[in-house]
Design goal:
MetI-like fold, two-stranded antiparallel sheet, 4 strands, about 5% strand, flat, disordered C terminus, cell membrane, Putative amino acid ABC transporter permease protein, ArtM/GltK/GlnP/TcyL/YhdX-like, transmembrane
Length: about 350
C-alpha cells in the first residue's frame, strides 16, 4: 500500500493531496478494510444495560401491589356501599349536569379563544390590546374567585337592563333571578376556558410557517379563507394535545361549582353523605366516575391526535393499547430489553 503524506506547512495549489490507495481496488480512494473488520461488522449488537430501570420498575410494582392490597383488604372503604350508590338517580343526575357543563363551557369557551387568538395576532393595535388585556385579567384571577363573583353579581348590580347607553332602558331583569348558580358557573368557566384556549390557539398558529400565508395571499385568497382553510388545519397538530389537557382539566374543575350549591357530581354525593355520614364511600363514587370520564376523554384525545398527525414524519403508535403499553415502565423496559437482545 502506497501512502502520500503532507507536511506541516499549508499546502499550495500544486501541493499533492494525501490519499490512501488500496491495492485491492486500483485507482480507488477511500478507507482500507483491515483484517478483522468483517468480523466486527458481523458481531451482534448488544443493547446498553440499564439496571436502574429495573430497580424503578420493581419499586413501582411493589407500590402498586401495596395499593391494591390496601384497597381490597381495608373494610373501611366499604365497596358494597360504593356499588349501591354508584348508579343512584341523584348521582346520575349530578353526572349529567357535570357533562353538560363541561361540554357547553368547552364549546363556547374554545370558540371565544379562537376569536381572541385571531385578535391577538391581528395587525390592529386595538384588537391586539383588548385580547392581551382579557387574557391577562382572566388568567390572573382564580376560577373559584370568578365563580363567586358572578354568583354574587346581584350585590353589585341588583338589576340588569337592556337599552340605550346613558339613556332609557327597554328591558330590565332581576339579577338574582337571572344569574342562577348554573348560569354563574357557565359564565365563570367559559371565560376561564376562553383565556387559556386563546393562548393555546395562538401558539399553534405561530407554529405554522409564514410562507403558507404568503403563498395563499399570492393566490388571491381572502384572510378568513386563509385562516380557516390553510393556517388553522396545519396548526391543529400543535393545538389538539393542549386542548385535550384543557378539556380534562375543565371536567375536574367543574367540581368547584359545589361551593355555590350547584348539584353536579361532587355536590350530589355530598348531599348523600351529609345524611348517612358515609363520607369515604360517597367520595369514592365521585372519584371512580371522574376516573372513567377522564379515561374516555384521554382515549378520544388519542384518536383525534392520530387523525391530525397523519402524514407527519414522527411515527405514531398503531393503536391506543400500544400507547398504553409504551407508557408503562414494566412493558417499556421489557420491550427495550427484548429489542436490544434480538438486534
Amino acid at each position: 500500500m502506497r501512502s502520500l503524506r503532507l507536511g506541516k506547512r499549508k499546502p499550495s495549489k500544486d501541493s499533492p493531496v494525501t490519499a490512501v490507495i488500496s491495492p485491492s481496488s486500483p485507482g480507488s480512494v477511500g478507507p482500507v478494510n483491515r483484517p478483522g473488520d468483517d468480523d466486527l461488522l458481523a458481531a451482534p449488537v448488544v443493547g446498553a444495560r440499564h439496571p436502574w430501570q429495573w430497580v424503578g420498575t420493581g419499586v413501582v410494582l411493589v407500590l402498586t401491589a401495596m395499593l391494591v392490597h390496601t384497597l381490597v383488604t381495608n373494610d373501611r372503604f366499604q365497596w358494597d356501599v360504593v356499588g349501591n350508590y354508584f348508579t343512584s338517580s341523584s348521582v346520575l343526575n349530578g353526572l349529567w349536569l357535570t357533562l353538560w357543563l363541561t361540554a357547553a363551557t368547552m364549546i363556547v369557551g374554545f370558540a371565544l379563544g379562537v376569536l381572541l387568538a385571531a385578535m391577538r395576532l391581528s395587525s390592529s393595535p386595538v384588537l391586539s390590546s383588548i385580547s392581551f388585556g382579557y387574557v391577562w385579567l382572566i388568567r390572573s384571577v382564580p376560577p373559584l374567585v370568578q365563580l363567586l363573583f358572578w354568583f354574587q353579581l346581584a350585590s353589585l348590580f341588583p338589576q340588569l337592563s337592556i337599552g340605550v347607553p346613558f339613556g332609557p332602558s327597554f328591558v330590565t331583569f332581576d339579577t338574582a333571578t337571572l344569574i342562577t348558580g348554573v348560569v354563574a358557573a357557565f359564565i365563570a368557566l367559559t371565560l376561564d376556558v376562553a383565556a387559556f384556549s386563546a393562548e393555546i390557539v395562538r401558539g399553534g398558529l405561530l407554529s405554522v410557517d409564514e410562507g403558507q400565508t404568503e403563498a395563499a395571499q399570492s393566490l388571491g385568497l381572502s384572510r378568513s379563507r386563509i385562516f380557516w382553510r390553510i393556517v388553522l388545519p396545519q396548526a391543529m397538530p400543535a393545538i389538539v394535545p393542549s386542548t385535550g389537557n384543557l378539556l380534562i382539566g375543565l371536567l375536574k374543575a367543574t367540581s368547584i361549582v359545589s361551593v355555590i350549591a350547584v348539584e353536579d357530581l361532587l355536590y350530589s354525593t355530598q348531599l348523600i353523605y351529609q345524611q348517612n355520614y358515609l363520607v369515604i364511600p360517597l367520595l369514592l363514587v365521585a372519584t371512580v366516575w371522574y376516573i372513567i370520564l377522564t379515561t374516555i376523554l384521554s382515549i378520544g384525545q388519542y384518536f383525534v391526535e392520530r387523525h391530525y398527525n397523519r402524514g407527519r414524519r414522527r411515527q405514531q403508535p398503531s393503536s391506543f393499547a400500544q400507547t398504553f403499553r409504551d407508557n408503562l415502565p414494566l412493558f417499556g423496559t421489557f420491550q427495550r430489553r427484548t429489542a436490544g437482545g434480538e438486534a
